[in-house]
From TrEMBL:
Keywords: FAD, Flavoprotein, Oxidoreductase
Protein name (record): Pyridine nucleotide-disulfide oxidoreductase
Species the sequence originates in: Bombiscardovia coagulans
Cofactor: FAD
Pfam family, one: Pyr_redox_2
MF terms (GO), sorted A to Z: NAD(P)H dehydrogenase (quinone) activity
InterPro entries tied to this protein: FAD/NAD-bd_sf, FAD/NAD-binding_dom, NADH-Q_oxidoreductase
GO biological-process terms attached to the record: aerobic electron transport chain
Family stated for the protein in its record: Belongs to the NADH dehydrogenase family.
FAD/NAD(P)-binding domain span: 3-312
Domain of life: Bacteria
Record's keyword annotation contains Acetylation: no
C-alpha cells in the first residue's frame, strides 16, 4: 500500500493529514511529531506574557486525528531523501512513498554573538514558559534586590511577535505589580529594532497607531538600532547598550534545522519549492509551511511564512498528492490574503481585512477578530474538539 508520511503536527502538517483523510486517499497515513500535543504558535506570546495558560493554546493530537491515521511520537533527525527514509531520534526509521515535510520554524540568531546564551526566544511551549518564568522571577526579585535591571525588559525586534508580546505584557503588568510588589512606574520596556519602522507588514497608519498605543502603555522604541551582541543582562548596539535582566529575542525565525541536516538546497533552512509545492527533481516530496519558500508569482518574492498561508499550502499539497496518485496533473499554489490581525493585548489591536472591500480596524474590536481567527484556525486543524480544547 502507498505510504504517505507527514512530518510535523503544526498548522501545515495537521491540516494536510485532515485533508488527505477527508479525500479518502488509498494510502497509509503516518504523522510524526515530537510532542503529543499541537500548540497554536500564533499565541505563544500570550503564554510568555502569562495572559494564557499552556492548556489554552494546545490540544492533544491523537484526540483529533481522523480514524486510521498512525501517529508516531518521535523527533525527526534527518531525511535520507535518496532512500526515501525518515530517521528518528529513537533510532527507528520510517520509509515513505510520499513525504510532506512541515517541520516548521526555529529561532534565528543571525549569527549575532550571545543571542542563544543570553536571550529568550519565543518559538515553542518550553521557550514561552521559560520566558514567563524568567520575567516573573526578575520582577519578584526587585523587592529584595532593588536592582532596576530586574524591572527592565528588552524586546529585540519590532515585528509581529514582539509587538503582540508587548501588548500582552503591558496588559498584565499592573496585576504583576500587585502580586510581586514592585512599582509599576519603574518598569522599563525597551523595543530595539534595526529597521526604521515597526510592523512592516502593516499599512503605515496602522503601524503608527500600534506604536503610539504601546508608547502610551510604557514602551520606548529604539528603531534604526542594529543589535550587534547580547551579553548577560545587556543588549548591545553600535552606538548604545540597554541593560535589562529579561531579554526577549523575536527578530525573526528560520526553518527547521532538519532541512539543512538533510542536504536540501536551502537558505535559512527554507527551500524554494516548485509551484505545486513539491521539491525540484523529487515530485513525491512536498515542503509546506515555514520550511518552504513558495514564490509569489505577482511579487516574484517568497510568500511570507504565516499560519494562514501554511494551512492553504496544506490544502494544495494534499490535493496534489491525491492528483499524482491518480495520474492527474496537480495545481499551482496561489494565495490571496484575507487580512492580517495584530493584537495589542486583549483590549486593542490593529487589523487590515480584505473581505467585501478593504477594511482597516484599530482598537478594541480587533480583539474579537483575533479570537475568531484563532478559533477558526483550531477548527480547521482539529474540528470542534480542538477548538474547544484550546480555549
Ligand atoms: C509568537 C508568534 C505569533 C505569530 N502570530 C501569527 C499570526 O497572528 N498569524 C499568522 O498567520 N502567523 C503567525 N505566526 C507565524 C506562524 O506561527 C507560523 O508561520 C506557523 O506556525 C507555521 O506553521 P508550520 O506548520 O509550518 O510550523 P509549526 O507551527 O512550527 O509546526 C511545526 C511542528 O513540527 C514539530 N516539529 C518540529 N521539529 C520537529 C522534529 N525534528 N521532529 C518532529 N516534530 C518536529 C513542532 O513541534 C510543531 O508541532 C506567529 C508566530 C509566532 C512565533
Amino acid at each position: 500500500m502507498t505510504k504517505i508520511v507527514i512530518l510535523g503536527g503544526g498548522y501545515a502538517g495537521l491540516r494536510t493529514v485532515r485533508q488527505l483523510a477527508a479525500a479518502k486517499v488509498d494510502a497509509e497515513l503516518v504523522l510524526v511529531n515530537q510532542n503529543s500535543y499541537h500548540y497554536q504558535s500564533t499565541q505563544l506570546h500570550q503564554v510568555a506574557a502569562g495572559t494564557k495558560e499552556v492548556a489554552d493554546i494546545t490540544f492533544d493530537i491523537q484526540g483529533v486525528l481522523p480514524r486510521g491515521v498512525k501517529f508516531v511520537l518521535d523527533r525527526v533527525t534527518t531525511i535520507d531523501r535518496e532512500q526515501h527514509r525518515v530517521l528518528l531520534a529513537s533510532g527507528s526509521e520510517l520509509s515513505y512513498d510520499y513525504l510532506v515535510n512541515a517541520l516548521g520554524f526555529e529561532s534565528e540568531s543571525f549569527g549575532i554573538p550571545g543571542v542563544e546564551e543570553n536571550s529568550l526566544p519565543l518559538v515553542d511551549i518550553p521557550t514561552a514558559l521559560r520566558a514567563k518564568e524568567e520575567l516573573e522571577n526578575h520582577l519578584a526579585r526587585y523587592q529584595y534586590s532593588h536592582d532596576e535591571n530586574d524591572l527592565a525588559i528588552a524586546v529585540c525586534g519590532a515585528g509581529f511577535t514582539s509587538i503582540e508580546y508587548m501588548g500582552e505584557l503591558a496588559y498584565r503588568l499592573p496585576k504583576l505589580s500587585k502580586q510581586y510588589h514592585f512599582p509599576l512606574d519603574k518598569v522599563k520596556i525597551s523595543c530595539i529594532e534595526a529597521a526604521d519602522k515597526i510592523l512592516p507588514m502593516f499599512e503605515p497608519d496602522l503601524a503608527v497607531w500600534a506604536r503610539q498605543y504601546l508608547m502610551d502603555h510604557g514602551v520606548t522604541f529604539y528603531t534604526s538600532t542594529s543589535i550587534t551582541a547580547i551579553e548577560p543582562g545587556k543588549v548591545i548596539s553600535k552606538d548604545s547598550s540597554f541593560n535589562a535582566n529579561t531579554i526577549i529575542w523575536a527578530t525573526g525565525v528560520k526553518g527547521s534545522k532538519v532541512i539543512a541536516d538533510s542536504g536540501y538546497d536551502q537558505k535559512r533552512n527554507r527551500v524554494i519549492v516548485e509551484e505545486d509545492l513539491s521539491v525540484k527533481g523529487n515530485p513525491c516530496e512536498f515542503l509546506i509551511g515555514d520550511v518552504c519558500a513558495a514564490m509569489d508569482p505577482n511579487t516574484h518574492r517568497p510568500y511570507p511564512t504565516t499560519a494562514q498561508i501554511s494551512v492553504v499550502q496544506a490544502d494544495c499539497a494534499a490535493r496534489n498528492i491525491e492528483a499524482r496518485m491518480q495520474g492527474r496533473p496537480g495545481i499551482p499554489f496561489t494565495y490571496t490574503s484575507t487580512g492580517t490581525v495584530c493584537s495589542l493585548g486583549p483590549l486593542a489591536g490593529v487589523a487590515q481585512i480584505n473581505f467585501l472591500g478593504h477594511w482597516k480596524l484599530k482598537g478594541m474590536k480587533v480583539g474579537l477578530v483575533k479570537k475568531i481567527t484563532s478559533d477558526r484556525s483550531a477548527f480547521e486543524l482539529g474540528g470542534v474538539k480542538a477548538m474547544l480544547e484550546s480555549n
